[in-house]
Amino acid sequence: MADEDHDSEDAVVSEKSRAKVTDHKLIGDEAQARTQRLKLQLPPIGHEIKYKNLGTPRAKGSRIRSRSLSHESSDAESYSTSSYTGSSSDDDDINPREKEQQSSQGFKDFCVRNIEQHAFGRREIEIAEQEMPGLVALRKRAQDDKPLHGAKIIGCTHITAQTAVLVETLTALGAQVRWSACNIYSTQNEVAAALSEAGYSVFAWKGETEEDFWWCIDNCINAENWQPNLIIDDGGDATHLMLKKYPHLFNQIKGIVEESVTGVHRLYQLSKSGKLTVPAMNVNDSVTKTKFDNLYLCRESIIDALKRTTDVMFGGKQVLICGYGEVGKGCAAALRGLGCVVMVTEIDPICALQACMDGFRVVKLNEVVRQIDILITCTGNKNVVTRDHLDRLKNGCIVCNMGHSNTEIDVGSLRTPELTWEKVRSQVDHIIWADGKRIILLAEGRLVNLSCSSVPSFVVSITAATQALALIELYNAPPGRYKQDVYLLPKKMDEYVASLHLPTFDAHLTELSDEQAKYLGLNKAGPFKPNYYRY
Length: 535
Hints:
Layout: H1 2-41, E1 63-66, H2 118-130, H3 133-142, E2 152-157, H4 161-172, E3 176-181, H5 189-197, E4 201-203, H6 210-221, E5 230-233, H7 237-245, H8 247-250, E6 255-258, H9 261-273, E7 280-282, H10 287-310, E8 318-322, H11 326-337, E9 341-345, H12 349-357, E10 361-362, H13 365-368, E11 374-377, H14 387-392, E12 398-401, E13 420-425, E14 428-432, E15 438-442, H15 448-452, H16 457-476, E16 486-488, H17 491-501, H18 514-520
Parallel strand pairs: 1-13, 2-3, 2-5, 3-4, 5-6, 6-7, 7-16, 8-9, 8-11, 9-10, 11-12, 12-15
Antiparallel strand pairs: 13-14, 14-15
Enzyme class: hydrolase
InterPro entries: Adenosylhomocyst_ase-like_sf, Adenosylhomocysteinase-like, Ado_hCys_hydrolase_NAD-bd, NAD(P)-bd_dom_sf, S-Ado-L-homoCys_hydrolase_CS
Binding site for substrate: 160, 234, 259, 289, 293
């Protein structure tokens, strides 16, 4: 009986073994089939990915070397999808200006990378809308009144899913819009396609050349049967081009809304020289922009951008942040929280003292240039990092910019014959010196968070609601309220934008009693702080 049991057990074990062998064979066959399919997708060994010059033309003789893909690569798309912007891949060599495209409804007044991406872009817009409660609330409250009825708006901002929610809000409030990008790398192609499919005149794609960039803005301004009366700008490029090339159109503008440090600086220069012939609203210095977009948005997006592009581990890294304004404060706080040793450069003694009180060393760039692992600029200035600094950086140093303009890092000085540019992935270049030293340059010195990553939709909702209210104010203001100068958004509007976003957090404001309001000399409905108050 025992022998029979033993034979029976052997038979069971044998059956299980055969089943396992069969399973392994099936798994092996499937793996082989997958491998074969993968080989069909990959280029042959040694195939070079063509480097696309998307920025300023390189100096003659500058060497460019592109990374090759081999069978060891995980898949063909890993090269382009390693960053957030992979969905907006620039793998199509045909310039959109040379294409003839139209929407499913026959609409043709646009120029984007690929209109066929519109369904994917629409999903991105719907996702962003879920995280933009304040802007959506403003749309619902004001759409019946149509406060922008008759407004014709030129938009020149980053074209992202969040911007699309703003565009659709402005049209829901009665406006007509034409839109271009303020940065050659930040456009989400699928979002631009979705807006074009919906009938919006959008002229933008990721990877524009400088010539394309100005062509797109020009096409937004100069169109048949189109007389713009408002500008919403990010960096001042649309304002600059219209003033220079179409002064007769510029003089008929009701107002300009500007949201960047660079653009605001340009506006104040125009005002000082007497060339600003229309009122302008400085949204950048609104509390709801400075304290939320500049600080909280950058605090999260700098980490996202660096991780997506370099896969760097932050713990123990020596980081230098040039500039300790709101952007610099956000970057410094985020990087210190992940274990970085953070240092700061500053020209302003007040900001420098803030950095010291926050626990950061304030240094000069020349003092630490050979030690740092990551260099981030966020000053709004030019030539903050020069070729001399770049020559002295250590091997493997990551260099990027969080300011609006690409003038902070002297990237042009790196386009020389003795240096080799090696494109590693989208928006990531290795610059290689003759001795083998290399630095990692992100987005060719342009705004790294919007070029290489995503940004928090909720914070953009705050800024976008501020921009929308500024447009409404300028468009509906009675003659004489605003002169040919630069203005800040009224404090009451800042508070209104903040109140639109509080329900998301289930926040409940305390109300002043009549006695308390009288004691403080305030209106119970606000504004609650004087204009000079620093939050």
